[in-house]
């Protein structure tokens, strides 16, 4: 009897295959022999294969190899079916043949990948392979960089030095963020920036049904009450941030929203200096405009005598020091300014002189 090894579905005889291959072992008994069956012997740990099946008459054994590489020896033995039931039947010698399984084994993507919505993630496989292909254009070489927008199945394939094709998949599960907008509790509308004066108050409503909620003030209730910024402080704005955390079975996802509360500003600007001397002596080196820093939404534009804009700022957190927006010192000269305050207050126009 002869025993040969071939790739399942292909005609050629072979002695090496790749991992994950399906291989056939076929017997060729003497044509003069009849009434027999084949007993197969597997001389290896069968846990290293995925499945094995024989044909109806037993002449062919089909083995689906897993990710283990090395030599695998298979033997076929003829057992005669002639003779009374219960009597010992004739057994032929075991004929052995072997196949060597090449390959790296698993290309090693995780079975599952858990992410929150819009969270970036990176997958990487062995860089010693070639001809990488991924399920989308996010893959480049042995690395896949993506943004978790929806649950999906991601696959990769590559070939090793024996030209064996290796593949693997991972299941990406994406949990939604507990999105929300901070509302003005009284109006029920989303609020971003607000100015409070006098006895004004605003109740901020996080409007979230997350598992946990906390504010940067330390409060954990859904609504908080906010008062005006004290007039005796230098603060021009305070930010109130709410963080919502939703617990899922395998992940915790969080979302944030914030509101800026501006210091009260009535629009009264007086005593704007008309001269600065930015020479570094510590006196009158910059343009100190009283109370202008309390209007973070104002705009300041300064032009030279030819009408060219040399300085622009939104808000006035830092006093102007006689430099242009390019950071270079402006020459001694007369300039004019246009200051636009937030709200419906007037526009301030005047002259400013630089003396060095």
Total E-strand runs: 28
CATH class of the largest domain, named: Mainly Beta
- What is the gyration radius calculated from CA atoms? 40 Å
Query: What CATH architecture label of the largest domain applies?
Result: Sandwich
CATH topology value of the largest domain: Immunoglobulin-like
Mean pLDDT over the full residue set: 87
Strand order of the largest sheet: 24-28-27-25-26
Percent in strands: over 45%
Content-based structural category: mainly beta
**End-to-end distance, in Å?**
108 Å
Largest sheet: 5 strands, mixed
Number of domains: 4
Uncertain spans: none
Shape: elongated
What order do the helices and strands come in, and which of them pair?
Blueprint (H helix, E strand, L loop, with lengths): L1 E6 L8 E3 L3 E7 L7 E7 L6 E6 L5 E6 L4 E11 L14 E8 L9 E5 L3 E5 L5 E5 L4 E2 L2 E5 L4 E8 L5 E11 L7 E2 L4 E2 L2 E3 L6 E4 L6 E4 L7 E4 L10 E11 L4 E11 L12 E2 L22 E5 L5 E6 L18 E8 L6 E8 L2
């Amino acid at each position: 009897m002869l025993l040969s090894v071939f790739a399942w579905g292909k005609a050629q005889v072979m002695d090496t295959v790749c991992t994950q291959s399906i291989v056939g072992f076929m017997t060729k008994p003497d044509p003069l022999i009849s009434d027999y069956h084949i007993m197969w012997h597997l001389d290896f740990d069968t846990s290293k294969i995925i499945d094995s099946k024989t044909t109806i008459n037993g002449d062919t054994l089909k083995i689906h190899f897993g990710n283990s590489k090395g030599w695998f020896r298979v033997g076929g033995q003829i057992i005669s079916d002639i003779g009374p039931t219960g009597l010992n039947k004739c057994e032929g010698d075991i004929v052995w043949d072997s196949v060597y399984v090449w390959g790296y084994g698993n290309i090693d993507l995780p079975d599952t990948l858990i992410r929150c919505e819009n969270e970036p993630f990176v997958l990487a496989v062995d860089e010693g392979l070639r001809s990488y292909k991924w399920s989308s254009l996010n893959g480049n070489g042995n690395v896949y960089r993506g943004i978790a927008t929806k649950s999906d199945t991601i696959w990769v394939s590559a070939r090793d030095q024996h030209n064996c094709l290796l593949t693997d998949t991972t299941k990406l599960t994406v949990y939604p963020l507990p999105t929300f907008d901070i509302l003005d509790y009284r109006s029920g509308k989303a609020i971003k920036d607000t100015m409070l004066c006098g006895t004004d108050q605003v109740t901020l409503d996080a409007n979230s049904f997350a598992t946990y909620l906390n504010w940067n003030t330390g409060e954990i209730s859904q609504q908080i009450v906010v008062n005006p910024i004290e007039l005796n402080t230098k603060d021009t704005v305070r930010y109130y941030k709410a963080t919502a955390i939703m617990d899922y079975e395998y992940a915790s996802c969080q979302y944030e929203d914030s509101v800026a509360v501006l210091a009260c500003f009535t629009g009264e600007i007086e005593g704007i200096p008309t001269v600065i001397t930015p020479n570094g002596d510590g006196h009158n080196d910059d343009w100190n405009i009283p109370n202008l820093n309390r209007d973070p939404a104002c705009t300041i534009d300064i032009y030279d005598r030819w009408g060219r804009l040399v300085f622009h700022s939104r808000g006035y957190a830092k006093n102007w020091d006689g430099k242009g927006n390019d950071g270079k010192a402006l020459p001694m000269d007369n300039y004019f300014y246009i200051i636009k305050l937030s709200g419906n207050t007037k526009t301030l126009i005047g002259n400013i002189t630089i003396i060095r």
